[in-house]
UniProtKB/TrEMBL annotation:
Top-level taxon: Bacteria
Keywords per UniProt: Signal
Gene3D superfamilies: 3.30.160.670
Name of this chain's protein: DUF4136 domain-containing protein
Leader sequence residues: 1-22
Amino acid sequence: MKKYLILLMIAFAIFSCGTNTSIVNSWRDPKITVAQENFKKVLVVALVKDEASRRITENRIAASNEIFKTSYQYLNETTKSLTQEQKLKILQDENFDGVITLRLVSTEKETEYVPGTYTGMYYGGFDGLYTGMYGYGFGNWYGMYSPNFYDPGYYQETTSYMVETNVFSLKENKLIWTGTTKSDYVTDLGSTVDAIMQTVVGEMRKDGSLPKK
């Protein structure tokens, strides 16, 4: 059991960079923790409509360690018409003992004002600065300083993504941990997946679902 728990921790450890993702809320089963589960094979399921985004998300996590497997290999168009029981049996026959799901809950658009910045010459130090400029016209002076004079403020629109992450035990056939994260200033799906996993792991360590560092 220790071997696979260590593998799980190593896999999560790669998500250790800075993040613009924060935890909104979380819950764990008080009777069982991820640390108590003997996860040897975990299915990664990204519940998104876009197939490309699904594969990017699942591949990103699955590439971190061999215990993670992408769901599109097992749950795809060929299994779409199967019942829930039949799909569960496929996972049991493939010896999966855990499942991690990520689901986009909502998106929120926000508009914020970015103030301008003054980058020109410091007022108060004119003595001496103008000594070598006497005799030059306004054009020379303006051409020297105007490009760095003022960067005006502007409004920008950002989109925040709320993502729900769940951890299921197939052995217990129950949800053992769930949490919702909020990601701001998203520009790259892959790095956002990393940030979500980093935030989730941090919260799970905090609530005792995973051992502390």
